[in-house]
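User: Please predict the structure of the protein below. I'd like the answer in structure-token form so I can feed it into my own downstream comparison script.

Assistant: Understood. Taking the following sequence of 300 residues as input:
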Amino acid sequence: MTHRVPSARVHTPRTALLIACGVAVLSLPAGGAAAAVQSAEAAADPFESVNRVFFAVHGFLDVVILRPLAIGYKRIMPRPIRTGLHNAISNLSEPVVAANDILQGHGKKAARTLTRFVGDSTFGIAGIFDVATAAGLPHHGNDFGITLAHYGVKPGPYLFIPLVGPTTVRDGFGSLVDIGLNPLTYARYDGDTEVGAVSVVAGGLDVRAAQDKNLKTLEATATDVYASLRSFYLQNREAQITGGKLNLDALPSFDDPGAATSASPAPSDASPTPPAMAPAATTPPVSSPPPSVPAPAPQP
């Protein structure tokens, strides 16, 4: 879940955030609609053989490194501290959200986002306390991948990158642009390196720990975890872009025909905050953003 491009200063790793997108897989009776969706998703994945290798590599790293660290972080770090870090990291993504609001022609949204950023950065003590939401200015996610889609750019091939997670060519490129759009990328101050390290490590562990139960459910119920994750990611991302909500009942079944399984969607982060990412729907600080989304709040 990482990157020292300047983004490492203020962005949470997109890995945990995006891997979380595989948390919800509901079965439907095998039928034409499910088969059509599955076929379309497979066609959008021309590098599937390589992606599956990378997916396996990521799975190994998750078992031996990421999950143990995330669970340890959740058990050792008091909840108020985890919540404060979560809020502060989400607050750091607001300039990117505002920039993309402007690029998409949403001036009022941008003004609210900037007001939220200033309020939380001052009265909320660097964003540790989310006073803006209480004042009627909730977080919403946005990123340059959504901006590109707004102007008709297609997603391109699906990609799975170890320690980054699922994405597409468009959204991966958009994540890099988001780094350049963030004025905090260029900020120089005492402790900037430490702030970047904490934001990457704490942000990633926070999201990974929050999604642990859902990920285990996915692994236990899906016959093809890779295909289920891909399906959820692509549909979830489309919901973010269109501003709609993901219809979990429309997800195709990758299990045995007729099997009925279900899992709860993870909180998303891009407001369009999608069910599992969307998280830091905010547009989370991304090393990717991603997709954008506030990151899910830490679990008790």
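That's the full token string. Confidence is low (pLDDT under 50) at residues 1-33, 248-300.
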